[in-house]
Design goal:
The protein is built from 16 helices and 10 strands. It has 548 residues and is mainly α. It is flat. The model is unreliable at 188-192, 417-423 and 507-548 (pLDDT under 50).
Length: 548
């Protein structure tokens, strides 16, 4: 038993050792094979990289070889061109050398011929000296004088022909430029003269404008100094404001339109609105000036000069609106300058401001040219504009093309058919003189002429003029009109002496007396009182009834 127990382990031990050795050997071989496979894969990858690098190098070599071929071809072409150029140079050099040889031969021949001619000339001169009793210098002087006379006569003929040709050409070109300028600019033939129209929406507004027994329309005439013309039979409800004074007519038009918008018609409201619009005249003038500058696309004008420009809308010259005339001259000047290749905007500026002096109210002491020059210098206008103002009536010489253009455009605008009405200018002067006759008398505040001079309203200061003096004013005006102005038909002179009291009554005023006496002036008096309580208003009505 003991032996069996020892034999079995002894027998199994070598088997186990052999198994272990064999398994270790197998593992080792497997490990070697794995290492070999890994090494093979690494070498395969390296070989692939090398092959790709070789392919890239081959491609580069191919491209470089192609480039080299192209360069070689270019070099061959350039060599051929250089060879051809060298051949041409050689050929030209041969030609030049041949030409030089020919020229040298010709020079020799010319020298020989010139020597022969000199000999012949000397012989001829000697022969002529023998035949003609005149020296060489005297013959030269005689020949020179003859040639000089012929040349001078030819130059005179040529000069006359050239001058006439240039004159004709200048006439044709100037006529063409003027025609093109006129063709590019067109305007109305006749501008509004002495009336302005305003369309009314309904008849109720017209009745409110007239007022009870004509109270509102008479107050409007007296306050604004204009006449309202209303045709009730006409289907189109239009009110015309008539006045020879453009500024007065414009203020009246704005006043009437404001009253219609606010729907307030009373003598007090008319006067209040008229005073408000009169205070805004300068703003209206500035707006007019800005509109004209915008239309002409002019910039850099001083704001003070814009106001004077807008005032030209309320001035007339022989019935032609001065602002419209200046705008027309500016556009014509710009068109002519464009045809001549000059500065269009500078020409427009000179044309626009050429009559700016007519906006200055100096009572006729200075001409509009001098006033315009002062304005232009004051507001730093260019020298071209100043010269255009000073020379457009030939008071001063024109020293540039723009001034000449303005002179031509001014004449074109004034000479256009229908632009100026001399009868209208005489009518305006007559109406103005009618108003000035009354204004010369002391104590007269305002004077207005209506109905083509057949009606004159004179408003006097009630503090300075009493009833008897008002009658004397009417007599003096009547006498002066008879002596100085010829007006057909009858002339009505109305002298208005009005004294107005305006009082404001408060509800807190405890000193109101029911039987307060109100003193009235001999001609007319207006007493206005306002209160919030109806009882006080009734008391005021009773007082007014007791003292009509």
């Amino acid at each position: 038993m003991m032996l069996n127990e020892w034999l079995l382990p002894i027998l199994f031990f070598p088997i186990i050792i052999f198994f272990i050795y064999y398994s270790w050997k197998i593992y080792r071989e497997n490990f070697k094979t794995k290492n070999l496979l890994q090494v093979q894969e690494k070498w395969k990858k390296r070989l692939q990289v090398k092959e790709s690098e070789l392919e890239l190098k081959n491609k580069r070599l191919v491209s470089e070889s192609e480039k080299l071929k192209i360069v070689e071809n270019n070099l061959k072409i350039e060599e051929k061109r250089i060879e051809n150029f060298a051949k041409q140079l050689f050929f030209k050099e041969e030609l030049v050398t041949r030409q030089l040889i020919i020229n040298s031969q010709k020079q020799e021949e010319i020298q020989e011929k010139s020597e022969k001619l000199l000999k012949i000339k000397s012989q001829v001169v000697e022969h002529l000296e023998k035949l003609v009793p005149m020296s060489v210098e005297e013959a030269k002087k005689c020949l020179f004088s003859l040639l000089k006379e012929e040349i001078i006569q030819e130059l005179r003929d040529y000069q006359e022909e050239e001058v006439s040709r240039v004159k004709n050409k200048v006439r044709e070109e100037s006529a063409k430029i003027i025609c093109l300028a006129l063709e590019r600019y067109s305007s109305e033939l006749v501008f509004p003269k002495t009336t302005s129209s305003l369309k009314i929406e309904n008849k109720q507004t017209i009745s409110r404008i007239i007022g009870k027994e004509g109270r509102n329309i008479n107050a409007f005439r007296k306050i604004t100094g204009t006449d309202l013309l209303i045709d009730k039979e006409n289907k189109e409800l239009i009110v015309q404001i008539s006045s020879f004074n453009s500024l007065r007519r414009e203020i009246a038009l704005q006043t009437l339109s404001t009253l219609i918008k606010e729907e307030k018609f009373s003598p007090a409201q008319i006067e209040k609105t008229f005073q408000k619009i009169s205070s805004e005249v300068n703003e209206l003038a500035i707006e007019n000036g800005k509109m004209v500058l915008k239309e002409l696309e002019l910039t850099g004008v001083h704001p003070g000069l814009i106001g004077y420009l807008g005032k030209l809308k309320y001035r007339t010259s022989y019935g032609q609106n001065v602002l419209e005339h200046s705008l027309e001259v500016a556009k014509l000047s710009g068109n002519i300058a464009a045809e001549l290749g000059l500065d269009v905007f500078l020409a427009r500026r000179a044309g626009l401001f050429h009559d700016i002096g007519k906006s200055v109210e100096d009572g006729g002491k200075y001409s509009h040219v001098l006033s315009g020059i002062e304005l232009a210098k004051k507001y730093k206008e260019p020298e071209v504009v100043i010269n255009a103002i000073s020379s457009h009536h030939h008071d001063y010489p024109a020293d540039n093309f723009y001034s000449l253009i303005v002179i031509a455009a001014d004449k074109l605008s004034a000479a256009r058919p229908g632009a100026r009405g001399y009868q209208l200018e005489a009518y305006i002067e007559r109406m103005d003189s009618l108003e000035n006759i009354a204004k010369e008398i002391p104590g007269v505040e305002k004077s207005y002429a209506f109905q083509a001079g057949r009606e004159v309203w004179i408003i006097v200061d009630p503090e300075k003029v009493d009833d008897h003096q008002a009658w004397e004013v009417s007599q003096r005006v009547k006498k002066k009109i008879r002596e100085q102005i010829i007006i057909p038909g009858e002339v009505t002179i109305q002298v208005v002496r009005e004294k107005k009291f305006i009082q404001k009554l408060n509800a807190l005023d405890d000193h109101l007396q029911e039987n307060e006496e109100i003193k009235l002036e001999p001609i007319q008096e207006v007493v206005t009182r306002k209160s919030k309580k109806p009882q006080l208003r009734k008391k005021l009505r009773n007082v007014s009834r007791k003292n009509p």
